[in-house]
Automatic annotation (TrEMBL):
Organism of this sequence: Pseudosporangium ferrugineum
Classification via Gene3D superfamilies: Tetracycline Repressor, domain 2
PANTHER family in the cross-refs: HTH-TYPE TRANSCRIPTIONAL REPRESSOR NEMR (PTHR47506:SF6), TRANSCRIPTIONAL REGULATORY PROTEIN (PTHR47506)
Transcription regulation is among the record's keywords: yes
Protein name: TetR family transcriptional regulator
Chain residues forming the annotated DNA-binding region: 32-51
Recorded GO MF terms: DNA binding
Amino acid sequence: MARTRLSAEERHEQLLAAALTAFTAGGYAGTTTDQVARLAGVSQPYVIRLFGTKQQLFLATLDHAGRRIEERFRRAAAAAPTLDSLGAAYDDMLAERELITVLLHGFAAGADPAVGPVVRDCFGRIYRTVRELTGADEDEARQFLAMGMLLTCLGAMRVAGPDAVPREPWMTELLGDGGHPGAPHTHARG
């Protein structure tokens, strides 16, 4: 069977997808470029040739995750430029556990001099995108992102999202929706 040769852009995306999986499982410190290479089906030197270092690969993965959120928000806003529309899009993204978990790893490593600027820029872009797309004022955008971070943390703990654990009373109270993760977005607007 002949192998189809991937373009440089396709290979880059393939490596970022493998890095997303690997960094989600092991975090920054617990992941090696060899693990990423094996997941992508390439050699470890190839990963280094494309990204330089594990740190640069991690930073590229964080940027990739943030841009995917921005893209999803832009698609949602094209249909309805509201916080509720963006909230529903984010609820869908909770199903992509890797996407939110790698961002949490990045936020946790935010004190690192190399990681911090990247995750702060990522979060700032998302904030500006929310305001730009919806016309939300600072308070509305702040509440929206605060609820998004809560859902991100709860999603990582499997309290929210499609594979959520059975609800305990505190979980339902915290989500404030009787069980539907999307509902708090409507409450966040006041």
